[in-house]
Structure formats: C-alpha cells, structure tokens
Amino acid sequence: MTSNDRKQFATALTDVLAVYGRETSKGVLRVYWEALKHYDLSAVLEALSRHTQNPDNGQFAPKPADLIKLMGGTSNDRALIAWAKVSKAIGSVGGQNSIVFDDALIHAVIHDMGGWPAICQRPEDELKFVAKEFENRYRTYLFHQPQSYPSKLIGIAEMGNAQAGFPVDPPLIIGQRETCRLVYKSGSRNESAPKALIETRKLISGGAHAA
Fold first, then answer.
1. DSSP letter at 169?
2. Average pLDDT value for residue range 114-139
C-alpha cells in the first residue's frame, strides 16, 4: 500500500472492527498499518472480507496476523513459494543476468547469502542446504523486517560491464511485472545496504525487462 491508500484502509478496517464492537484509535490504526502496509490494498480488503466470513475464527476481531495468514498462508508456505521462484530462476536465468523479483524479501535474503551469482554457482548437490538456509532466513524476515533492500540482484555481466565502463542492460524481471517495478523503484541503489521487504505472492514468470 502507499500513503494514498491509508484513508481507504483506515475506513475499511474501522468498519470491520465495528462489526465486532471494537472502536479504533490512531494508535490501533497505526499498529495495523505498520503490519500490513507492505501488502496491496486490494489484498488487504479481500482478507478483511474473508475474515468476516470465516466460520472457524471469523467470530473474533481480526488481528494483523490473521489477515497476513489469509493473504499468504503460513510463514512456511510463503518461504517455500519464494524458494520455488528462486530455484526456477537459477535454472532459467542464471547468474550472468541482473534480476528483479516481485518479492523484495527474496532480494534481502539473497543479498545476505552472498548475492545472486553466488547462489547460482552453488553445486547442485548443495542446493538442498541452500534452500534450507534461504527458507530459514526468509521466515525470519517475515517477522523482523529491515528498512531497505537492494533494488536489484546484480549479475556477473553487469559487474563486469560496470567495472569496464560499458553500458549496463536493464535487469530481467521474475514474477508480476508491476510488482517488480515497485520493488525496483522502492529498493536501495546501494547494493551493500541493509535489506527489507515488500511482499507479494505471484507465481514466477519472467523474461521481460524491468523499468
């Protein structure tokens, strides 16, 4: 969500909490906003609606964690989906090309693990250990979110071209195009900066140029 979505978000949340006899305050709205602002407004509104119709726990007012679960499953589900995107991109794109995923947490984790080429160059027989490390780090970032992330994961070709003073090609995108654009535009251009997140859960596609 963006700051422009804040009013609509607050109105929707206030209406839903009122159904449960709960009043909202600036403090309450701020807590929900901080927990959910990394999601698309449409996804949050749908989760609010789905919660009120949930026969299992819809009788209770939704906590941020309830809405996050509705939007993306458990943390384990989301980590597995994220690794599936990375694994497919390793095979289809490789470490030569710079890349932008539609999930900034992936950028954060891969940056921590040594960067995109390093991940791609790991021997096949080590990938199950790489996957485990990735998933553990991803789950950690779901609950402890840093404040920035690399705008793109730099490949070998861009590293070489930049050092030689040659033109640099745009990164390839993996996933939903508009979300990749958002990840790219919102990320840090300083690739050594701390990492963070924005989250989406579209399946991998890719092959077009970003931004």
1. P
2. 94
- How far is Cα 73 from Cα 79, in angstroms, rounded to an integer? 10
Tens-digit pLDDT profile for residues 135-175: 999 988 887 776 679 999 999 999 999 889 999 999 999 98
Mean pLDDT across the stretch 115-132? 94
Q: Following DSSP, what letter does each residue of 170-210 receive, concatenated?
A: PPEEES-HHHHHHHHHHSBS-TTS--B-----PPP---SBP
Spell out the residues 6+ positions from residue 11 whose beta carbon is closer than 8 angstroms to its own: none
SS3 152: coil
32-55 pLDDT tens trace:
998 888 777 888 898 999 999 988
* Rounded-to-integer distance, Cα 197 and Cα 187, Å: 9
Alpha carbon distance 155, 148 (integer Å): 20
**Residue holding tokens 């251009």?**
189
Burial 166-182 (b: 16+ CB within 10 A, else e): eeeeebbbbbbbebbeb
Chain Cα centroid distance, residue 149: 10
Measured between alpha carbons, how far is 153 from 172 in angstroms, rounded to an integer? 10
Q: What is the pTM of this model?
A: 0.61
